[in-house]
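> Could you send the Glutamine--tRNA ligase prediction when you get a chance?

Sure thing. Input:
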Amino acid sequence: NKPSSSNFIKSIVIDDLKSGKVKEVVTRFPPEPNGYLHIGHAKSICLNFELADEFGGKTNLRFDDTNPLKEDTEYVQSIKEDVEWLGFEWDGLFFASDYFEEMYNRAVLLIKKGKAYVDDLSPEQIREMRGTLTEPGKESPYRSRSVEENLDLFERMRKGEFKDGEKVLRAKIDMGSPNINMRDPVLYRIAHVTHHNTGNKWCIYPMYDFAHPLEDAIEGVTHSICTLEFEDHRPLYDWVIRECEMENTPHQYEFARLNLTNTVMSKRKLKQLVDEKFVDGWDDPRMPTISGLRRRGFTPESIRAFCREIGVARSNSLVDAKMLDHFIREDLKLKAPRTMGVLRPLKVVITNYPEGQVEMLDAEINPENPEMGMRQIPFSREIYIEQDDFMEDPPSKYHRLYPGNEVRLKHAYFIKCNDVIKDENGNVIELHCTYDPETKSGTGFTGRKVKGTIHWVEATNAVPAEFRLYEPLILDEEGAEEEGKTFLDYVNPNSLEIVQGFVEPNMKGAKPHDKFQFFRHGYFNVDPKHTTEEKLVFNLIVSLKSSFKL
Ligand code: ATP
Ligand code: MG
Ligand code: MG
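Output:
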């Protein structure tokens, strides 16, 4: 692993180690198991794990499972799989719900210190009385309850004596604070729901702002890294650590979240795309989820290189999704075997080639990486070419096949188009060509030149294959949402095109997740879900062309 590039959090870590403020760096990646991880999470994962790795520290994977309404063990499973797949090993595997008893005790401590109270106001009333940026909040009439009464009520909240929403526990801080987060934030709420981990043991659940600092402190996290929207919560984070008298003092640092063009990146929205069947699951290759990217054919190396390149900053920005494409091309360039596939086949009969004869031609597996060796591909009287590579009536700059024109078949011979066969509707269904045996690839033929080289697959041995071609799932930047529209109005109706074609016979044994560069088409991944013994299905990872520059 290359060292991570320098960033402001890394500088803080270096200073803290030097000054002896911390002896060992401990970070954590704290997903809420309410959905699958996406590329934005990958940024946070890389940051946390690489930071600790570099300084011999530790990183925990902690499930921030304090909101049972939305959480599920399916998500826990997928998150573990995705973090491992990205190539990281966690030190501790923890669940915030394992700390519920400890958190409860810390809340009791706050009550005893006169720093928390049970409030009977409804959630709406609490919200209203919190005030605004320009207007101070109003104190709840229950704010002055005695410690004894608060202790009794809080215990009865835990016992299940009250309904959802009937009572909450609030911190007693300052309703006049300029920071709204400090205006007596809610610490606990009642929710009579089954929790994926603790079952029905609890019916009160801690809020994020109370739970998160405690989780960090309990685990001895030193640098608690989160996204910028939590900057205003930092005073509350520090308040909780201090007033709960935690032994360890973690510190929160904020960085800019990743935003990508043509991409929605919130689990809520991604879940909506899944639930409303815009895509076929969280791992649909069009999704920006780690599992979607994996199925599409992205590699952990390409995602980590991307995260390293985008870096860690303190201001929000929008990254071009083409940058991610750039990194998978770079990663596969030397790794992926080259091969030929015809996506939309047109039959070509080579009329002067002996009937029944099949010859084997030599082809490099990867001209950019000669160590990968050679492959053999059959050639005979009948081949398939791409429908696009023929035009009956071409424009002047068209250098592919047209009546009377000669092109090179990659790895094979020059062929010349003589006849065009059509069906009763006038559609071209077959071409009759002749080949020139003198022009065989590799023989050094220089007699004459052709302007076009096209790919092909020998017909009798061709392996049928399905190709799934993708366009961005979201048409416009999500930020371009106009009045009355939601991101669902920007879902691209043409994000998936499925075509049936052919690949070289040596592709027969291809396994799920094998990756290839199809000559002139781009990089493809063998789809792990749809591929069967009988049928190969390829996902387009990325095309070859790019205008993107780093
Ligand atoms: P979402 O809004 O997509 O549901 P979240 O922040 O609610 O994301 P969590 O499961 O709470 O998701 O996040 C786990 C960690 O990942 C947090 O530390 C969070 O800051 C980080 N994270 C989430 N989204 C991004 C992003 N787009 N860029 C960078 N980090 C992110
Ligand atoms: Mg969340
Ligand atoms: Mg969120």
